[in-house]
Amino acid sequence: MQVDRNFSYGFSSSRYAGRPKTVRKEAGAATDFAPMRPRQHQINCWMHQLKEIVSVIKTKAYAAQSPTTPLSPFSVERRDPGPTDVQIEILYCGVCHSDIHTARDEWGGTMYPCVPGHEIVGRVSKVGSKVAKFKEGDLAGVGCLVDSCRICESCKAGLEQYCENGFTLTYNSEDKHIGGHTFGGYSKAVVVDQDFVLHVPENLDLKAVAPLLCAGITTYSPLRHWKVGPGKKVGIVGLGGLGHMGVKLAHAMGAHVTLFTTSPGKVEDGKRLGANEVIISKDNAQMAKAANSFDFILDAVSAQHDINAYFNLLKREGTLVQVGAPPLPLPVNVFGLIFKRRNFAGSLIGGIPETQEMLDFCGKHNIVSDIELIPISKVNEAYERMIRSDVKYRFVIDIASLG
Ligand code: NAP
Ligand code: ZN
Ligand code: ZN
Fold this sequence. Notes:
This protein is an alpha/beta fold. Helix content is 21%, strand content 24%. The protein has two domains: 4-211 and 370-402, Medium-chain alcohol dehydrogenases, catalytic domain (Quinone Oxidoreductase, Chain A, domain 1, Alpha-Beta Complex); 215-346, Rossmann fold.
């Protein structure tokens, strides 16, 4: 186990009983991005909300200290595993565009220091006394969620991502165990309740599995929900981390897949990844030829763009699902929806049961992400390249490089 325990300390003395040692920044800053909003809470009541007295361990990480500072070495606290917790030695962590939106506070509501990372794979290094699902040495994955209320209708349906009482995100959520806020996978270890830890197929290349924990499930979930499969004509917009998983998964589900890209240099890759055809979205003639022909389009673009151009490509009653989350609103020309009774919807990651289903599906079909493995010292450069749409097709951090 790589966690440095020299810094371990607890709250067992009466002086510290019921009190977290450090209070970072209070959660609850306003955000315009409602689905990702950290649960608003009263600043002063956090002490009463602490249900446990826990000891903590320190582990190396990389953090952004403000919206404008590059990520740099940092040290975070993790709780010592409780009875139902799994401690994971992180081996690889994918770099999602949501990490950039959050580290730079583009959606609002970022709590600093911010340690991003929600595409986590590693090995179980310790389990609590009541953990039945994992044992030391098992492969394990953690995605965007580490907890939810577990009692609302959504949670009971296995749709924890739509928890009606507020889920806990892997990073940038209130930490209900040790106070402060949660820290993500750009770090050497994480402690998560067993119900939010996934089993990783043993037959896949582990470093290329990491992006499945967000990019994989975020595309798999809407493809399944809208019943993409044989006989369906499906469009995927944007060949980045999410988009390339969308192409691979829709192809594996048996659909006819068209990739829409702004990058002419990605045409061949699009076909190699499973697209039957590739349309350069800036080419009006190519776009016009595709009008009224799609059953379903998944838009995975991270920046401002014209979604109305895609409404016009849908058949009558076809559906455009937005998973890309640009910080500013996307203008909608309602006539593109009214005519032909088209649908415009959104989708957020996926619940725990469906994430496991997706991992098993990928294990069965031998699907992983196309990745560029980087040391953590290159993460700021990776962010800049992603903003320029220059990634093939997901950066994954080799966590061993954290030292
Ligand atoms: P990414 O790897 O950076 O890929 C984004 C792709 O969008 C680019 O590769 C590019 O593809 C296209 N693009 C970028 N700028 C564009 C522009 N100005 N106009 C048109 N196309 C543009 O990002 P990602 O990690 O896949 O994430 C994509 C988005 O999904 C982000 O906003 C992220 O926050 C969001 N997200 C949402 C969820 C959810 O649950 N809904 C989960 C994870 C991520 P081409 O070069 O092919 O055009
Ligand atoms: Zn993500
Ligand atoms: Zn719930």
